[in-house]
Amino acid sequence: MGKALKGVRILDMTHVQSGPTCTQILAWFGADVIKIERPGAGDATRSQLRDIPDVDSLYFTMLNANKRSITLNPKTEVGNKIFAKLIEECDVMVENFAPG
Asked: Are 89 and 7 in contact (CB under 8 A)?
C-alpha cells in the first residue's frame, strides 16, 4: 500500500517544536520534505538537550527524521535565487515564524 503524500514536496522553514512536528507527520505520510536551516548554526534544536558532545540531539533527530536538509540564507542574492527555485519546485511551504 502506498503512502498518502507520496509525490508531494514540502519546503520546511520551521524551527523548534510545533513546525518540525507538523512536517515530520507529513514525512511519515510519504511527503518529500526539504528542511531549510540557517548557515553556520542550523536548526536550534540540533544542540538543545544534547547528551553526547558534537552529535545532533535526540530532540532534533526525533523531529527531523525522513527529511532532507540544506543550509540557505534567502537574504543573499544567491540564496534568494535558490529559494525562489525551491518555491517553484515544491507543492507546499510550511513555516512557523512569529508574525511581522
From this structure: no
